[in-house]
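User: Teach me something about this protein's shape.
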Amino acid sequence: MLLALLSGFALSQSYRTITAIVAQGLQADFGLSAQSLGAFAGLFGLSFGVAQLLMGITMDRYGLRRTVLASAPLSIAGAALSALAPSHGWLMAGQLLIGIGCSPAFLACTVFIARHFPSERFAFLSGLSLGMGGLGLMLTGTPLAWVVQHWGWRTGFGILAVLSALSWLLIFALVHEPSLPGRAPHSQESWGDSLRGLAELLILPHTWGILVLGMSCYAAFLSLRGLWLGPLLMDRFGFSLVDSGNVALVLSLISLFAPGAFGRMDPGPLRRRAWVANASLLMAAMFAAMALLQQAGATVALMILLGLLWGFSVLQYTDVRASYPPELTGRALSLYTMSMFLGVALMQSATGAVAAWAAGRGIEPYLAVLLAIAGWLALASLAFRMLPASPLLRR
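Assistant: First, the predicted structure itself:
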């Protein structure tokens, strides 16, 4: 059942990283600027993140299976609309539908693990799940780059629509939630009570450090992998689309194993926060180095190292689970996942605006974009260190 749910998550990873492969085609067909391209990529994260709020509540009330099966057809429709889009506006509408349709994908996996597996296996299984989601990143590496280069970006969206339909059928056939002792299958609280429960999390002081860093680390990785990797390598170093796809493929292969490895190395509640803080700061330094180094080999090497380091994000999920009592775990994971994808939307849109601003002033856009991401990460890492940790971690 978990593998079936992960098929939907893997495809959501494909959708959120496809922009790096289709960017040149979109710019050629619709005349998109760097800012418009950033807005296009960011709309997925925005719709995905906002929908998280409702998806977390819907899973509590109606179950994981019903929530995923009801929302996933929107991603199929959005991919089909994108493949047929006659204009930029229709393309944006497709992104909006895809984002909403994919929004319960990974949350369903983490809540399923939290409910149906022992707590001591949460870090490892979450890391394994994040890694298997990397199969979707692999699809938007060399394979989809080759398809797009030969048959165009519309074919890429068409292939994802077909695969999404197959994933829906797999979940429909295989996923049936086991009943839990002492737990009603559907929550009886009202929507108002559920929303108030989420708002109560924001009153807790330790929530803010978790959310600030949650909005930053995955957003930085995805802004590179899902938006700027292809344009940067092609414009700065003259890579072909397939060459860029090869780099994306290597990065995706690494992402299959890095989260699981970090899940295995989980040092425990107190040391875990120090690991997360240090890793996020190192990530910021790598983005700064990538901005300043104008050498292709060094840039590719730094991208690969970032892929390895990004595996620490599973420790952030584990920190969320350990920071709240069991009755708040589902909502806390929902709020955290929402923050991740709102962060993706904000960072991709903001870096698009930064690239346009830099180009207008004769500054290389990728220098400005990478330095902006580095600064964002450094500030978020500092906030995570300074804001309080959950008292539960000391028990």
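Now, about its shape. The mean pLDDT is 86. The radius of gyration is 20 Å. If you'd like, I can walk through any region in more detail.
User: That's plenty for now, thanks!
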